Amino acid sequence: MSVQGVIDSFRILLAAVLIFLMLTAAPAEALGQSNPVRFVAEITFDDDGRALHYPSALFFDRGEDEIFLVNGGRSRVVVYGPDLFPRGSIGAGRGVDAPRGVFVTSDGTVYICQSRTPAQPHPRITILNGAFFIDREILLQDIPGGGNFSPSRMVVTRDGLIYLAGEATRGVMVLDNEGTFLRMLRPMDTIADREAIEAAAREREKEEESRRAKEEEDVSERTVRRADIPEEFRPRSRQQGEAPSGPGLGPVRVRNVSTDSAGNLYLVSAETSKIYVYGPDETFLFSFGEKGGTPRKLSQPRGIAVDENRKLIYVADYMRHTILAFDFTGRYVFEFGGRGFGPGWFNFPSDLAMNRQGQLIVTDLFNQRVQILEIEF
Questions:
Q1: pLDDT in tens, 274-285
Q2: DSSP 111-149
Q3: How far apart are CA 327 and CA 351, in angstroms?
């Protein structure tokens, strides 16, 4: 081979090495100085020693220092100890064959939301005691709208209320601990779904009619009642007027729900790319997030975790493959990640949690792993 040939071969080899390093090294945004995030460890196998298969959701149990991981491709929940070694799993033998989300209360009770299967045609919440034996199940077909409901995430409050989000449900279901339907908690925002907008308008009109009827019952004899107003001067409802067109006010789809130690609720909507924050009494506090596919914006938010020590809220953007950090007022602070395979890169991150050490746990869905990251902010 000529000298020039050797030089050309060396250049090709050097270029290949550089490309490899670029693909496998952590991104500057993730592990560099601008947004200090340090890779700590990863989980890649289950309790049978098999590779994780689409890990999709998780919950960190602070009481026992354990990670409950929904290993979606194998339809089981794997439990990991503080050393990140699997301690066991909850599967079909314990009535868990289609897990979508998990929540563990302070007394060790495990709540698992499950979708329908051929063997169990009803979506349900399976409740297990601390030894992972079934205590009871809440079948959702008995709940208004529950038959078509596909549960995805849940929160159980100290008072025993269950807040249940679905794959494409507008708002979250609120149940008591026995599974009795209480109400829907529905954030309202500008949406494009005409059917949902019109249904919301009808509901508001019904509430307004009820309010007016109550007022009419309380007015004095000198007050002119609506019945005495000529037809042409009576208020017209939306159904009587022209049908609205274009985006309008309606209840948003909520895919995920989370909470913090104060009992605040965080509702995640991929439809509007916003997070809606409510107080423990369900009083709406504020919303944040802006739809888009560029830095600082949310394309399809899914996972959320509250970092109370640093006073940050982390949101996993499924389509941008990034984790964004916001302060407690909803102001954007920083982000890290990007699509890739090395530490600090993600391939469709789907859920988040914080552990006792203040480290961020990320389900890295299509990389078939869970990453544990130190936020040095």
A1: 999 999 999 999
A2: EEEE---SS--S-EEEEE-TTS-EEEEEEGGGSTTGGG-
A3: 19
